[in-house]
Write a structure and sequence with these properties.
Elements lengths: L1 H22 L4 E3 L4 E3 L2 E3 L2 E4 L10 H11 L3 E5 L2 H4 L14 H10 L3 E5 L30 H18 L10 E5 L11 H13 L6 E6 L13 E7 L4 H4 L1 H6 L6 E6 L15 H13 L3 E5 L13 E2 L4 E2 L18 H12 L17 E5 L2 E4 L10 E3 L13 E8 L8 E8 L1 E6 L2 E7 L7 E3 L9 E7 L15 E12 L2 E7 L2 E7 L10 E2 L9 E9 L5 E4 L5 E6 L2 E7 L6 E4 L7 E9 L7 E5 L19 H8 L3 E7 L16
Parallel strand pairs: 4-5, 4-11, 5-6, 6-7, 7-8, 8-9, 9-10, 10-11, 24-34
Antiparallel strand pairs: 1-2, 2-3, 12-13, 14-33, 15-26, 15-27, 16-25, 17-22, 17-25, 18-21, 18-23, 19-20, 19-22, 23-24, 27-32, 28-31, 28-33, 29-30, 29-32
Length: 663
């Protein structure tokens, strides 16, 4: 019996060895001119992919695609605002379970680089910062502002709880952690960067290698002596030139391009972006020949589902829903020609045969679906209860971060040609007077936020300004980007030889949160005829098999789409994106429900599922054209005297009426 027990103990011991090995700590550090993984030279070949832009059922497929490409590491941002959507309430479940994502990478023999911000850029809403920070109007983002840093520390503490146990020193896959993100493009503030570094060390990243990324032109502004310095640049750049200054300052440092841009992102109203695969491959070849590590941004871009797409800072340029990025792995997860060209190169630098490329996920088409139900968003029965506000306030001050907002008040008697001026309007406004649409304004249209009224307006007429918030700016100091109306609404009217300014007050404010999905509204059946005012449209379709598809939105105006409760993202007829990617894992056999919010109205209320995307069809003619350009406004006012009149309404008739309901 004793002998039998001894044999059993030995068997149990050997059975436990793989598990023990998996949890044994390792090392990753900077050596002389190279990184050292467990003491041996190691070139990082990282694939940047973003877990929120990939449905969780597809995470493993995308990781395996990266490994088959020839990568040895996955690089990820941590998106603060998707994890703390409400102040103090953190969510690390479902698609937010980043620890599970990292463990999947380790399961497939991949290391992980973590970039926990707090700011990430990434063409993501507000660069990853949560909207509720803006409730404090004087908050100074990305500084040592005590309010900002208090919340940064709370967030990074939660990140540490999730990911510090997964560093390589603890037997996990995480080999590097980034401190802030391209801070030299924002400011020069070494004390702030130092505080972020110290914060990350204090939450469990005290032994892992820390690094900071910037451009070769600005990295010295914030470079700290105890971190690795990495460079960001794109295809076509002279690779060796990018590292000249780093090598002068640190001749023996390992070199790394922490963002090598494989393509570029698309913005609404601008041409679809592509980049040369030859230039990408040649740049990576140069890096590998010179022992330079890299992270390919993006290897797979994915999709900015929901309201998470951000906006560029060039006069407010909102980003499209698709984050395909012209990456080697396309939005749906399929290997492109760019993928195979890069895989061929990386195979030459691997001492093992690369794994087979995973099969592409199935694709289906869906026959035309007609909409049979409609809920007018601004119909009296569907309007949310208003809150009163004497002066104009942005959306955040009403405790709403995303969606739409409507400001209503009464007007003085003014004549045709009066200018309605909104300062500042963010981002897309539809203006109604006594329920009649009188124009649309778009912040990105050269910041045109002034509308010329074409008809006389009676005393007491109801003014309704419905505003859709698009993505907050994700780059530069313009990330402080509140939504709705931030300052004032004025009427500039001619009285004889003078220009009279009415500063409108006493507003009734109605909130339309994006989370609503139209579920609580009153729908009318058998009347889904197109409307040019905001409305939800609802229908369903049946499937006998599921698969990925692309929803054709080319006959619709501007809004959001939900399928089976999942928000696919924004659409806009201006393009270039005319389809929305629908992951097959969000569809089901049998009945599927589809809901469309269209704020400007469709030309035809139908959709169909296509087997291929359409992301390169531009229709700038659909941009609002009623706005008065700044120069035209200056000309209209030149040579006139100006009398300012502050108009304060008393909450009289018309203020509580719905658009379309006249007093």
């Amino acid at each position: 019996m004793k002998k039998l027990l001894t044999i059993l103990c030995l068997m149990l011991t050997f059975a436990a060895l793989p598990a023990m090995s998996a949890t044994k700590g390792g090392t990753f550090e900077a050596g002389k001119g190279t990184f050292l993984l467990n003491g041996k030279p190691f070139v990082v070949k990282a694939a940047e992919i973003h877990y929120p832009r990939i449905p969780r059922p597809y995470w493993e497929h995308r990781i395996k695609m990266c490994k088959a490409l020839g990568m040895n590491t996955i690089c990820i941002y941590i998106f603060w605002n998707i994890h703390e959507q409400k102040e103090g309430q953190f969510d690390w479940t479902g698609n937010n379970d980043v620890a599970a994502f990292c463990k999947l990478a380790q399961k497939h023999g991949m290391y992980v680089i973590v970039r926990p911000g707090p700011y990430v850029c990434a063409e993501w809403e507000m660069g990853g910062l949560p909207w509720w920070l803006l409730k404090k109007k004087d908050v100074k983002l990305r500084t040592q502002d005590p309010f900002f840093m208090k919340h940064v520390r709370a967030f990074e503490t939660e990140v540490g709880k999730q990911l510090a146990p997964l560093t390589i020193q603890n037997g996990g896959p995480i080999i590097m952690v980034q401190v802030e993100n391209e801070y030299g493009s924002y400011d020069a503030n070494k004390p702030y960067v130092s505080e972020i570094r110290d914060c990350l060390r204090s939450v469990g990243f005290d032994k892992v290698t820390l690094f900071q990324c910037d451009w070769s032109s600005n990295f010295e502004m914030n470079a700290l002596p105890d971190m690795i310095w990495t460079m960001n640049f794109g295809t076509g750049a002279n690779v060796l030139d990018q590292f000249k200054r780093v090598k002068q300052l640190r001749p023996d440092t390992p070199l790394m391009c922490s963002e090598y841009w494989s393509g570029w992102f698309d913005g609404w109203g601008t041409a679809h972006q592509t980049r040369s695969s030859d230039a990408m491959v040649n740049g990576i070849r140069t890096m590998l020949d010179n022992n330079i590590s890299f992270s390919l941004y993006m290897t797979h871009g994915g999709t900015s589902f929901g309201h998470w797409a951000g906006a560029n800072n060039t006069g407010f340029a909102p980003d499209c829903t698709s984050y395909d990025y012209d990456a080697p792995i396309n939005e749906q997860g399929v290997a492109t020609e760019k993928y195979y060209q890069l895989r061929e190169l990386l195979q030459k630098y691997s001492d093992k045969k690369l794994p087979a490329v995973p099969k592409a996920l199935p694709v289906i088409s869906i026959p035309e679906v007609k909409f049979t139900e409609k809920a007018a968003l601004l119909a009296k029965d569907n309007l949310p209860k208003p809150v009163r506000s004497h002066s104009i306030e942005p959306m955040e001050q009403f405790n709403q971060g995303y969606g739409s907002i409507m400001y209503s008040t009464t007007m003085p008697a003014v004549g045709a040609g009066t200018l309605l001026q909104i300062t500042d309007m963010c981002d897309y406004a539809i203006v109604f007077i006594d329920g009649k649409k009188v124009g649309e304004l778009y912040r990105g249209n050269g910041y045109e936020t002034t509308l010329a009224l074409k008809e006389d307006v009676r005393e007491g007429a109801q003014l309704d300004i419905f505003i859709e918030a698009m993505g907050r700016i994700n780059y530069s100091k313009l990330i402080h980007d509140p939504k709705g109306i931030t300052k004032s609404v004025e009427l500039l009217s001619t009285k004889g030889s003078h220009e009279v300014t009415y500063n409108l007050k006493d507003w009734q404010v109605r909130l339309f949160p994006v989370e609503n999905k139209g579920e609580s509204l009153t729908y009318t059946s058998a009347d889904a005829s197109p409307s040019d005012t905001p409305a939800f449209y609802r229908s369903s379709f049946n499937l006998t098999k599921v698969g990925d598809t692309y929803l054709d939105m080319s006959t619709w105006g501007k809004g959001l789409v939900w399928i089976n409760g999942y928000c696919l993202g924004r659409f806009w007829e201006v393009g270039p994106q005319q389809t929305l990617y629908v992951p097959g894992c969000w569809l089901k056999k049998g009945k599927n429900e589809i809901v469309v919010l269209d704020i400007t109205g469709p030309r035809s209320a139908v959709v169909r599922g296509l087997s291929k995307p359409n992301v390169s069809e531009l229709h700038r003619e659909y941009l609002p054209s009623d706005a008065v350009k700044g120069e035209a406004l200056k000309k209209a006012l030149s040579g006139r005297g100006k009398v300012s009149v502050s108009k304060v309404t008393d909450g009289g008739a018309g203020n509580d009426a719905a658009p379309g309901a006249k007093d």
